[in-house]
Each structure stands twice: as structure tokens, then as C-alpha cells.
Amino acid sequence: MMPDPAFAEWMRAVQVRMEAALDGFLPSDTEAPAQLHAAMRYAVLDGGKRVRPLLAFAAGAVFEAPEAALARAAAAVEMIHAYSLVHDDMPCMDDDALRRGKPTVHVQFGEATALLAGDALQSQAFLVLAEGSDAVDPARRVAMLRLLADASGSRGMCGGQAIDLASVGLTLTLPQLEQMHRLKTGALLRVSVMLGALCGKTLTPTEEAALNDYAAAVGLAFQVVDDVLDATADSGTLGKTAGKDAADNKPTYVSMLGLEQSQALARKLRDDAHKALAPFGDRAHLLRELANLIVQRKA
Ligand code: GRG
């Protein structure tokens, strides 16, 4: 199924908008300490699919959120994502030399600078969100900060990463694998949707629950597809190392369910995501298209 041209155009516009927003929200590399600022910018700019910002903008569209507020919220999530990749690539974690087709931050700038760049990106994310846009009132802004802190901390992404590291060489059950991914990658994808929505009109509890269901399904689908791509990638494709997780003796959906069942699970999760969007009708068409794209993606 090809995405409709208007959707492809919308995606490109958000990606361009985000590049400019991120550029503006990051410290200049002419400002001291220049090396640290250069590493932060290198980690964030000119690369990445911007899936999290796309989810935020698509959720914002359901609730008529203003673009300036969305760009801020999306930039904050993308900075957390970038920091997680910088740290994940370091020798003490995955020890990867390539990311987004270019040398990883520690290869390019050294380990100490990479560590600090990740730390500083995390702080910058909260600063950008806290400074907020006038369209989002201060109480709502605090709620958004809490959501982002929760999604990225020990009960979210960092917690998932800790479980992942501890699971090397172990046999996980399917629910344990799912819980690990719901935290490690799902939490940030989910908060992207929620922050985008919170930039707009007030959500009813039913709408919030529906959006949560959508985000949970899409977040897990993203990871299942990542495992499928990892298992089927040619070495060198977009910096992805074929079967790296399996080679590292990490449990994956493909190692537990096999390729075909993993692909079927991704499609089921996409269908779950679509069902969750039913209460929003046409207003959610961008979220619907993104669920399709996440399941059909090739990188
Ligand atoms: C080190 C605190 C800490 C956390 C690391 C998210 C994470 C936790 C590590 C990333 C490891 C990884 C490659 C996970 C697979 C799924 C994933 C998050 C892939 C990268 O996200 P994309 O595909 O990347 O959205 P781009 O480059 O498009 O932004």
C-alpha cells in the first residue's frame, strides 16, 4: 500500500520544520564550550526519520494544536531520543561505530564528550519544554514535563534499557520481552503522541485512553518491525548490522516467534492502533497513516 501523496508531503514538511526547530533550540557551536555544543548538534541534526516528532504533530492535528507548541514538544522528545542513541552507541553499551550512516558521537568526538553531549541533550530537552510556548498554559506545561520525565527515566526508557542489558544470554518470556520494549522504545513513542495531543484542546478521559491505546500499539509495532529489519538487513544497510541483537545473544521477537509470526504480530498491532483511533474519525488520518508507515518501513 503506497502512502497517499498528501501524507508524504505532510511528512516532508514536518521533517523540514523540525530540522529548523531543532537547529534553533540547540546551542550554537560557536558558543563555548564549542566542542560539546558541536557534539550535541552532530547527534541531533541532519539525520533520523523523526518518527517521534511526526507522531507528536499527527496527534496535535487531532486536537488543533498550534505548530509552534508542537515543534517545541517534538524537539524535546527528539533530543531525549538523540541522547539515548549517543549513550546506547558507547563502548559500555552497544559499542557501535556507525549511526545514521555516519560515525557515532564517541567515535567522532571521544567518549567523554559523547557522555556529556548525551547528558546535556537531556537537560536541553527539559529546558526547551519548560520554556514552553504561550499557547500552552503553565499547568499543562508542568504536566508535559512530568510525562516526559517519567517516559525517559527508570520507569520508562532507562528502565527498559536496564532490563535489556540484564537480559543478555537469558531466555525471556514473551510478556517479559514485551514489557522491556514497552519501556525501552515504547515509552518515548507513546509520550510523543501524548505531548502532541496536550499541545491542543483539552482531552476527555475517553480520548486520552483511546490515544494511549493507539500509542501503545504503535510503540510495540515499531519495535517488532525493528527486530524484523534487524534480522533481515544486509550488513551495511543504513548503518544497521544484520542480526546484531541475535549475535549479541539478546532475545528478539524474531528469535522468539520466527520471522513470519513477527510480521503478522506487527500487522495485528497496526490494526489495533487503527481500531483505537475510531472515536476520532477523519481527524486521526495522519495517525492512521503513521501506523501504516511504521509497520511498512524498510529502515
Ligand atoms: C542508553 C539511556 C539509554 C537508552 C537507550 C532507545 C534506546 C534506549 C536505545 C536504542 C537502541 C536501539 C537501536 C533500539 C531499537 C529501536 C530504536 C529506538 C531504533 C532507533 O530509533 P529510530 O529508528 O532512529 O527512530 P532514527 O535514527 O530514525 O531517529
TrEMBL record:
One of its GO terms (biological process) is terpenoid biosynthetic process. GO terms for molecular function: metal ion binding; prenyltransferase activity. It comes from the Bacteria. Its cofactor is Mg(2+). Gene3D superfamilies: Farnesyl Diphosphate Synthase. Keywords: Isoprene biosynthesis, Magnesium, Metal-binding, Transferase. The keyword Transmembrane does not apply. InterPro entries: Isoprenoid_synthase_dom_sf, Polyprenyl_synt, Polyprenyl_synt_CS, Prenyl_diphosphate_synthase. SUPFAM superfamilies: Terpenoid synthases. GO terms for cellular component: cytoplasm. Belongs to the FPP/GGPP synthase family. This is Farnesyl diphosphate synthase. It comes from Noviherbaspirillum humi.
